[in-house]
Amino acid sequence: MKEIAKLLQEVNWIIKNRKSELAKNDDSFNMFRICGVNHYENTHSSILAELLDPNGSHQLHHKFLDAFINTLIKSGILPPEYVFGYQDVEVHREYATRFGRLDIVIKNSSGEAILIENKIYANDQFEQLKRYHAFGVQQYGTAFKLLYLTLWGNESPQTAPDKTDYLQVSYCEVILDWLERCIEIAVRSPIVRETLIQYSNHLKELTNQNTTSAMDKELIDQLSLTENLDAVFMISANLSNVKNNLINTVFLKQLEQLCEEMGLDLLSDPGDYVNTSWAGFQFSVPHWKNYKVLIEFGAQGLRNCIIGLAPKNDQVDTSALSKIKEKVGGGNARLAYTRFPKYQNWQADAMKAIISGEMKGIIKNEINKLFELLAEVEGV
What we know:
- This protein has helices at 2-22, 31-34, 41-52, 63-74, 128-140, 171-185, 190-206, 213-223, 226-237, 239-262, 321-328, 348-356, 358-373; strands at 90-97, 100-107, 113-118, 144-150, 167-170, 265-266, 280-284, 291-299, 303-311, 336-339.
- The chain is α+β, with helices and mostly antiparallel strands.
- The protein has three domains: 2-26 and 212-237; 35-206, no CATH class; 240-373.
- The strands form two sheets. It has a five-stranded mixed sheet, with helices on both faces. A five-stranded antiparallel sheet has the order 6-7-8-9-10.
- Helix 1 (2-22) packs antiparallel against helix 8 (213-223) and helix 6 runs antiparallel to helix 7.
- It is flat.
- This is PD-(D/E)XK nuclease family protein.
- It comes from Chryseobacterium indicum.
């Protein structure tokens, strides 16, 4: 245990020292963060569309688009033989069709197209990808690709009967890899290059990759020392246990207190929340006949957290679901939900928020919001 305590002390010193250094250099200045670009899909779509447009103001013609397609091929998302012609390429934002508005449409005079649906934190609209796929088939036959772009490369929350052909693309890997290539391409265009660097750094913050390479190397070197290896592997092996322990011994008690304060019933018990698919927390609302409040993680590891409503069981009346989804802000064929605020992925900052009681306060506030939104909805 002394070895572990010593290692933690050394790692904390490295982190604090590096944070102090970062606060003094130019990396802490990022105009995208300052302007609050974080969760605005439209702004991200505008940036991507401008870069992908051969006629864009970057004046690098089709080089960024070519790099994008090559990145998709390199990532295994597109097949090696895929080819997209660069003749008369047009890039459109908010492309209006009778099937809905597509975030980005890239098309050429050969009748080929790439359709991009961009999701940062917003929820899917009803049968959104199904409708966009139908548009692609109608307009381009088989000569189109439908990309579903999210921070982590998630699947669409559409249920199985509504699933359609689309390709999952992530900001955290694919877009960041593409931007690295774009930065290389723009080496002789300093304004474009520096803008790309800032946007890339901003995306790294959004996807929890903002630790600098220097800090990574320093930490890795320290953790790789022979005298630290036993402690490193012991800590690594118990990371899930630490998270589960905080949830089971601290957070669930806080949720019980919250239920007493709000007149709810907690439907969740201690368990392995970290390694369970669709883990989460449920609350019964006495005056709701058909639905319960749900906090759920879309991916193992406490990632992609949502909050909303789910049917109490398979026998209840769910005819109000469409109205509930409209009020809440989205959902799928069974659930009405929105992204959980601030902590979509429960890492160290979320665990600290549990210990401090902040997480309990956020959940209480969000449940009260649901009550206000659904006060006039019948059939809840």
